[in-house]
Amino acid sequence: MPLSAYLTLAAILFSIGLFGVITRRNTVGILLGVELMLNAVNINLVAFSRFHDTEVGMVFTLFAICITVAEVALGLALVILLFRMRKTAIADHIDWLKG
Amino acid sequence: MNNPIALILLALLAPMAAFLLIAVVPSLRRAGRPAAIVSIAAVLTSLLSAIRVWLLAGDVTTPIRAAWPWLPAENGALGTVGVLIDPTSTLMLILVTLVATLVQIYSLEYLHTEPPAALGRYYAYQSLFVFSMMGVVIAPNLLQLFICWELVGVCSYLLIGFWYRKPEAARAALKAFWTTKAGDVGLLIGIVLLYRLAGTWDLLELRSMVETGTLAAAGLGVITFCLYLGAMGKSAQFPMHVWLPDAMEGPTPVSALIHAATMVTAGVYLLVRTDFLFKLTPDVLLLVGWIGAITALMAAILACVQTDIKRVLAYSTVSQLGYMMTAIGAGFAGAGFLHLLTHGVFKALLFLGAGAVIHAVHSNEMSDMGGLFKKMPQVAVVFIIGTLSLAGVPLFAGFASKEEVIGATLAGGLTGPFVMLLIAAFLTAFYMFRVVFVVFFGPRKKTDASLHGQEYVHGAVHSHDPGVLMAGPLWILASAALGIGGYFTLNHPESEFTLPGWLTPVAVAVAFGGILMAFLTYERQVISADSLARAFGPIRKAALAKFWIDDIFEGIYRNILLALARGIGWVDRYIVDGVLNVVSAWTLEGGDALRRIQTGRVGDYIFALAAGLLVLMFWMGGSF
């Protein structure tokens, strides 16, 4: 398969993730969207690594997955804290910065 | 020490050192009397040095000049500071230091009820004043003269307002400062214009330029007029004389020093110093002469209607300053300077004598005084000596100098001013002897201290001769007045002009006429003072209103200056502020409208972020 196929898959995955982040009202849903966007990036990295014959991209992807795990743990902790404080997990209800 | 330059620097810097010491060391200032001792020691040093300089260099024909460069610039120093020793400056220096010394000694007793801290403050100002006045006198260039001139003005302000808790004193201090400052602006402009014309501030260089004819005469009239404006303010010439009578709110010794002998003569001194410039501009000189004569006559009329003893003396000072200016205007600065010196001595004497009377009676009003000859014979005698000097009676100090001034006016061809000065001389003798007869010989009207108009609250009433600290300076000045008078009666002063033979008898007759008139009116009461007042009804009414000059100034202030200020205030409030207010309102409304973009929802921000990124990517599409 050509490189463009992988890149197209990644772009579609990224767009779905972004759409989820923008449209989901639930905080957990937003986090899931972010995960999708991150995985799209990982697919890109792996594809370029493969087609350019270098392992650096692979290693980088491993790092990215590790950090994603940490990020999800942190993000979920924030969501729980938020829920305890505001009794809601809906992002639209948290509008302290409203002008 | 035989070096006149070192001596004159010692004379100049001793009071400055005293001032710094008293000003910087608070414990000394708050102690009061020790500060006074320091100040008196310093001014005494100055007096002795000044006398020594006079003995060494009082008759030099070529002035001794020492100058150090100041204000360094690319092409050499712009100005110099230094000293100029010639007969004029040494004589003036002796007058200043002599009167200052006596006044400072006199003040020690006169102000003995002041709290020590106030006394310390007083002596600090006094020392600063002596320094500044000497700076004016020995300045070799106009720049240094101007700086010291301003310092003198500041000291005058501080000393008039010495009793600053008294509203009249605070007002008078401000009035004096503002009025003289108005003239000083003219002086500054004149000095700057002169520098542009001649390229130097130095008096000797200017003089040599005038003598060799290298100074362009074009535009000099404006310059001398500006210089005269400065002198007009300081020397209380019509119409800027209004501050001097009000300045009498200060302590009497201050009036004796500043408003009789030294500061007010600074204007005359400036004109004597720059006489060679004024000679080139006869129009300005004519103006100086006429205004001097108007001042002399007007102030003499005003002095006749005053009831406050110090105000009589104040108007008399204004009048005598007019005499000096008239002589300068007639082209004979020497005569004016001679009158300055003798007037300094006997007017200081008169003020200090009046101070002794006020100290005893606790009132400035002559209606509270009377029959004091028996109570305080010493003061009466010295006051009469001063009065005779001022009236221009032969054998006394004012005689020769006043005759010189009147003669100079005639010789200079100013017939109108000559007549005015003769009338003023008659009035001078009249109003001064009115004071003498009312205060020292008239019936005693008050036995106790009166409550109104008193200079300060005092414990016991003591209408007797003052102690040695006040009497001493009085006698020294009185003997100086007698000595000068006797000397000039024997050796007539060398004039640059010949006096007509009939002038001396006329001058003496005028003086005695005035004395006789006062004697008949106030002692024998052959002429009723009331009918005299009726005979001069309109003039008297005008004089009581001070010729409306204060009112005119106030009218100018209220109707022109304040209206202008209100107009400018309107422009500021509605046009300048209006533009700013509109701009600020727009900013506020714009901010309020833009505020609504901030929804506070995370999704919106991310959408905007993504959309922005997309736009950027399309925009930079070519380079991807």
Folded structure, characterized:
The complex is a heterodimer of chains A (99) and B (624). Chain A has 99 residues and is mainly α. Chain A has helices at residues 3-23, 27-51, 56-86. The longest helix of chain A is centred in the last third of the chain and has 31 residues, at 56-86. Chain A is elongated, with a radius of gyration of 17 Å. Chain B is mainly alpha-helical and 624 residues long. Chain B is 74% helix and 2% strand. Chain B is built from 26 helices and two strands. Chain B has helices at residues 4-24, 26-31, 33-57, 87-110, 116-138, 142-160, 167-198, 203-212, 220-234, 243-246, 252-261, 266-273, 275-278, 282-304, 309-329, 333-361, 372-375, 377-391, 397-411, 415-441, 468-490, 503-523, 529-535, 537-544, 549-595, 602-619, and strands at residues 64-70, 79-85. In chain B, strands 1-2 form a two-stranded antiparallel ribbon. In chain B, strand 1 and strand 2 form a beta hairpin. Mean pLDDT of chain B is 86; it is low at 447-461. Chain A binds chain B through residues 18, 21-25, 30, 91-92, 94-99, and chain B through 594-603, 606-607, 610.
